[in-house]
Amino acid sequence: MSAHVIVFGNEKGGTGKSTAAMHVIVALLDQGFRVGSVDLDIRQGTLSRYVENRAQSDRDLKVPNHVRITGDDGVFQQTIEQLSQSVDVIVIDTPGHDSALGVLAHTYADTLITPLNDSFIDMDVLALVDGQSLKIKRPSHYAETVWKQRQVKTMKKAGAFMDWIVMRNRLSHLDARNKREMEVLLEEFSNRMGCRIVSGFGERVIYRELFLKGLTMMDFEGDALSMSHLAARQEVRNLVEAIRNGPNPAKEE
What we know:
Elements: E1 4-8, H1 17-30, E2 35-39, H2 46-55, E3 65-68, H3 73-83, E4 89-93, H4 100-106, E5 111-117, H5 120-123, E6 127-129, E7 136-139, H6 141-156, E8 163-169, H7 177-193, E9 196-199, H8 205-209, H9 227-244
Helix pairs in contact: 1-2, 1-9
């Protein structure tokens, strides 16, 4: 398989996986990559609806080669194999709960991105934290799943590696104690689990308003850009740059 596979995964819902996935897709399209996208969330299908809204826009917008999976493991694997023959990058959006297909997708990931709201509730999916000392007691269920799928990926192909990025999402623009404590905890988690911590998207209403129109921050230009828009575009670029600077960078043809 030659295509670089980016998986957005987190077994907790509401962390912004689909929004982040769509912005990365469009940013990569703008950079000249051929991009395929796969939606594994059979019930919600947010990424699929996002792509549909984009395709129906009266603007001339770039869209990925998109597939929504509603079948079994065999259908998913066949889809990945077919897409990899025609695209440079495949972006996979997984459901916000434990699912067999979601777990399987992790074994294909060259880059795994786990969006995480800046809260101790979301941190609980990654690690069990002592409430008194604010020290990590042990990895939680999702982190253990990622660790196991990393091993499966390595066993399938010698030298294969999954670059795991934990993306701090919906960051407050204020310096709060919770924000600082999360930073310390995530640094400890990074050292223990071998993942990278990347600042993602700030808490901006604009991200949520774009869905129905199928737009992303990368679609605005010129006078339509406010200071908030410019800052949001830079957040997207920073995330894409973090992906490309990892040990498994995607390469343009």
